[in-house]
Amino acid sequence: MLAKRSILARLLAVAMAGCVLMTLTGPAVARAKKDPQPYVKYYVVAAQYQGQPESLTEIARRFLGSGERSAEIYHLNTGRVQPDGSRLTDPGRLKAGWQLVLPWDAAGAGVTYGQLPTGKSPTPGARPTGATGPGATASPSQSPSPSPRPTGGSPGPGGPGPKCTATTGSSSRSDWAQLRMAADSAWTLTRGNGVKVAVVDTGVDATVQQLSGRVAVGADVTVGNGRGDTDCLGSGTAMAGIIAGDSSVDGSPVGIAPDATILPVRVVRGSGAARPGDAANAIEVAVSAGASVVAVGSHVDLTDPAVATSVATALDHDVLLVAGAPTRAVPPPSPAGRSGGGALLLTGGVGAGDQLAEQYAAGAVEVVAPGVDVASLGVGGGRAVSNTGTEFAVAFVAGQAALIRAAQPDLTAAQVKERIRGTADAIGAAAPDDKYGSGMINPAASVSVAVDDRNQVASQQQGNNGVALAVILGIALLCGAGVVFGLRLRRNRFGG
């Protein structure tokens, strides 16, 4: 009998040790969650094409319309480990079975949209079950497919835009905005990978080194079938640099979401406001091309009826539109009653001392971001320039939205907006403040901090915490039962 009790006592000791270990590690296990692999367009290299070995130039010509775009494919894949364990280091050498990530606008037989397969590479040209067809751009987490592209506004491989030499901004530079944003604090969680951000402004200079491989062909709606990847004025390029500029280039301003893709949509070729029809067309082009975040420049008047209709279309397709807050008391388009999950976020610009970039209408600003003396990229070489304007604050917020949409792809645009507002640093006497709204955006907090019950992220985190708590309580009950059993065993042993 004593031997039996001795064995039971040893088993109890082991169980108690296990309880302690599970209590220490249980919450961490409950919190562990693998980041979802992003959805991309990719192509599996074949042994040969039309009797010749595959090459980046031929692949670019076949799927992008121009062999000159082979550099984009190279930059998207250089250094990435392939299924056979090797890496792309020489653009002239490809191996059958390699998986090449392609730019967003790639289309043709063999182009697949989905998550990159793990393990053994699929047969070249094969399409995994559930992947969308060639030319698809919408993520499975998004709402129903956008409306068809407006005639003449389709971003395609049309002729290049005119060469230009005009620039914008001052050559003096201050990095206060990037330092205050501290976006690199968020990069351990997300860099905006897989998120397409449309810049509706003056176009974007895709030849700038800091934007290499990050800018799609886009569209020029002012001419009907032109490209958006050139820029004569510079504000669109500056916005793109703030959103996704490559911070690894020495001396360059830091982009908020450096792995995001920029979709440039030109609405003006000179100063002044965009024509309402062009502005409306541009927003619809951005939506139909699969942008989940749209940064609207200062040339667009959201209160125009035609533009308001396009905004409503975007809101029906789970798109977050970021635009400048109005300077006059005219109500912008309202998302009330829309069922597509989209949202409109009105932004104000501020300087290092929190001075406003413009005199916005009272109560119109929802959040603020740097918009005075902001460093970004200039056209024609990418030299750093300093700019002031609400559109640059819009770019910071759009970059932040890209970080959130990459880190939490299940959130709707409306929930992304609430996360941006809920994690902003308050400025002024109240929050929301009549001048500053919810306050200065905080990119790092927006991807790591729970907000409130209005946001699905908070509910998910609370749910995860609830699971962890349930595990801990279960362990505690088990351990408590073990203690009671041990006391009884001890009493029986010594009490006879």
From TrEMBL:
InterPro entries xref list: Peptidase_S8/S53_dom, Peptidase_S8/S53_dom_sf, Peptidase_S8_subtilisin-like, Peptidase_S8_subtilisin-rel
Residues of the signal peptide: 1-30
Membrane-spanning parts: 466-487
Any single biological process term in GO: proteolysis
Highest rank taxon of the organism: Bacteria
Record GO terms (molecular function): serine-type endopeptidase activity
Ranges of Low complexity composition bias in the record: 122-142
Domain Peptidase S8/S53: 192-439
Region entry Disordered, spans: 113-174
Natural source organism: Micromonospora rifamycinica
Residues forming coiled coils: none
Family statement: Belongs to the peptidase S8 family.
Pfam family, one: Peptidase_S8
Keywords linked to the UniProt accession: Hydrolase, Membrane, Protease, Serine protease, Signal, Transmembrane, Transmembrane helix
Taxonomic lineage from the root: Bacteria, Bacillati, Actinomycetota, Actinomycetes, Micromonosporales
Protein name (Swiss-Prot/TrEMBL): Subtilase family protein
